[in-house]
Structure formats: structure tokens, C-alpha cells
Design a protein that fits this description.
The protein is mostly beta strands and 84 residues long. The chain is built from no helices and six strands.
């Protein structure tokens, strides 16, 4: 099931925090969720980001949705602070 955002909304897939480093060191549970995600789809009025962009966003202004074991956030384009 695909989420189709309206107007200036963006749907992004939340990235899971690392559980271990590249060298194999196990990390403890993250205290905070990361405030970055990969854009999955954009609304028709979005101008500054596109599908596949990795974005940093304002955490408090999102709507979290879980569809088919994938965690998504729906946010407004104006709440995106930067791309990576």
C-alpha cells in the first residue's frame, strides 16, 4: 500500500538507528529516535525535495504511521530543516 501525500506534505521512511558499528561493536538502545528519514513520496506542491532525498526534520511536527512493518512519517515541506 503506497501513501500518497497531498499538497505540500512529504512521506518519508524512518531510518532505524544503528545497532552495531561496521567493526561489529554492539551499541545500546538509542535513547532518542533519529530525526532523519528518506523521502518516499512528495505532494504535488512540494518544490525543494524529491523521492530518495535524506532529510532532517522537526520531530514534534510529524505524523507517524506504520504500514506493512515500515515506519513512515508524514510532514510538511516547511518542517524539513535540511537534506543530507
Amino acid at each position: 500500500m503506497a501513501l500518497k501525500p497531498l499538497k505540500t506534505n512529504v512521506v518519508a521512511v524512518v531510518e532505524k538507528p544503528l545497532e552495531k558499528t561496521k567493526s561489529g561493536i554492539l551499541l545500546g538502545e538509542a535513547k532518542e529516535k533519529p530525526a532523519y528519514a528518506v523521502v518516499d513520496s512528495v505532494g504535488p506542491e512540494v518544490k525543494s525535495v524529491k523521492k530518495g532525498d535524506k532529510v532532517i526534520y522537526k520531530e514534534y511536527s510529524t505524523t507517524e504511521v506504520k504500514v506493512d512493518d515500515t515506519d513512515y512519517v508524514i510532514l510538511k515541506e516547511e518542517d524539513i530543516l535540511a537534506t543530507m
